[in-house]
Amino acid sequence: MIDYLKRMIERYPALEPVSGEARGAYEILYGCYRQEGKLLVCGNGGSASDAEHIVGELMKGFYRQRSLSREEKEIFGELGDNLQEALPAISLTGHPALSTAFMNDVDPEMVFAQQVYGYGRKGDVLMALTTSGNSRNVLNAARVARAKGMKVVGLTGRDGGSLKELCDVCIIVPGQATADIQEYHLPVYHTICAMLEESFFEEV
């Protein structure tokens, strides 16, 4: 078994102070997936790209191929050869028709919150990315998630902003500049995704 947290710290020593929070985020997501829940992810700008990236690592093979079981391959026939096991995750940064309609017709600061309301269920998790910790549309999503009985994991920087008060676990990476914070977010969420993959899928 690979110790992905140790590997993260060896490659990025500045992240050692947040290794406990990274493990906490993994444990929340592990519990969610064990109960057949799902992850919702949101962020703006570069953090929107990170949200999509996270979904990509969870919904298909990352380090592992995640082949279907023999029983599932029988169900899907030849299609099963090109399907992979997935950990359900949805990025709230896509869906341009929904997002632009809601921003135009209702309230731009509620665009992620509306999707959390629509997709989210008790036991699901919201991963909220904002380098400042103060993006209003992300904060509103976190507030709706908490009201629905969801857990909230934050990825932020600086002093954590207002987001840290809304999170079950808030990973506040070092840095003040947006680009520096985002550079540290990537190894953190890669590590969490790798740990989840190892927990749920056997090596082939």
Brief digest:
The two termini are 13 Å apart. 49% of the residues lie in helices and 11% in strands.
Topology:
Layout: H1 4-11, H2 19-34, E1 39-42, H3 46-59, H4 70-76, E2 89-91, H5 96-105, H6 111-119, E3 125-129, H7 136-147, E4 151-156, E5 169-172, H8 178-200
Parallel strand pairs: 1-2, 1-3, 3-4, 4-5
Question: Average pLDDT value?
Answer: 96
Strand order of the largest sheet: 2-1-3-4-5
Strands, count: 5
Tally of separate helices: 8
Helical fraction equals 40-55%
- How would the global form be characterised? globular
* Helix-and-strand structural type: alpha/beta
Which value, in Å, is the CA radius of gyration?
17 Å
Q: Point out poorly predicted stretches.
A: none
Euclidean distance between termini CA atoms: 13 Å
Strand content: 5-15%
Q: Let me know the largest β-sheet.
A: 5 strands, parallel
**Topology pattern, helix = H, strand = E:** HHEHHEHHEHEEH
Task: Provide an overview of this structure.
The model has no long low-confidence stretch (mean pLDDT 96). A five-stranded parallel beta sheet has the order 2-1-3-4-5, with helices on both faces. It has 204 residues and is of the alpha/beta class. The chain is 49% helix and 11% strand. The radius of gyration is 17 Å and the shape is globular. It has eight helices and five strands. It has helices spanning 4-11, 19-34, 46-59, 70-76, 96-105, 111-119, 136-147, 178-200, and strands spanning 39-42, 89-91, 125-129, 151-156, 169-172.
Keywords:
204 residues; alpha/beta; 5-stranded parallel sheet; 5 strands; 11% strand; globular
